[in-house]
Amino acid sequence: MTRTWTLPTLFVLCGSVVAAGPAIGGSPGEAAAILLVFSLLAAVNSPLVFPRSIGAPEARRRSATDGRPVVYWRPGCAYCLRLRFRLGRSARRSHWVNIWRDPAGAAAVREANGGDETVPTVVVAGRPHTNPDPEWVRGQLPPST
Fold first, then answer.
1. DSSP assignment of 9-30, as one string?
2. Where are the transmembrane segments (predicted)?
């Protein structure tokens, strides 16, 4: 749980330290802008921009039932962010597993990638695909209801 929030927390803390200089120096506008930039970086790298994560066993069970892909991801991963943003609202039509919060998910990713925790790893119909093209993933999603 704490590893998931380490990077966003560091962004906020670093932003506060960097913004303290202009704030003390009499430039509150500059300090606010710096803090805003660091806060946005923290938000983008937090788990809040991803759909709600579930455990790997539950994701596999649901995927077997509804045919939706399982996306294994971790906070701070630029490729995971790219996939998430390129999928847009349709990202909710897949099952997301945060490998930093779910040891079974991390194990599934290592098994699929020769021992490496390379994400995003998308499992469609039981076959893993490492860092697939977001448009390909969109094509694997079931139609919206």
1. HHHHHHHHHHHHHHHHTT-HHH
2. 30-50
> Which residue range is the domain that position 25 belongs to?
2-46
Q: What's the angle, vertex CA 66, arms to CA 95 and CA 88, rounded to 5?
A: 40
Query: Is 133 among the domain residues?
Result: yes
Place of tokens 């506060």: 16
Between CA 138 and CA 51 the distance in angstroms is: 15
For 2, other C-beta atoms within 10 Å of its C-beta total: 7
The total domain count for the chain is 2
145 lies in some domain = no
Tens-digit pLDDT profile for residues 73-125: 998 899 998 999 899 888 889 999 999 999 999 999 999 999 999 999 999 99
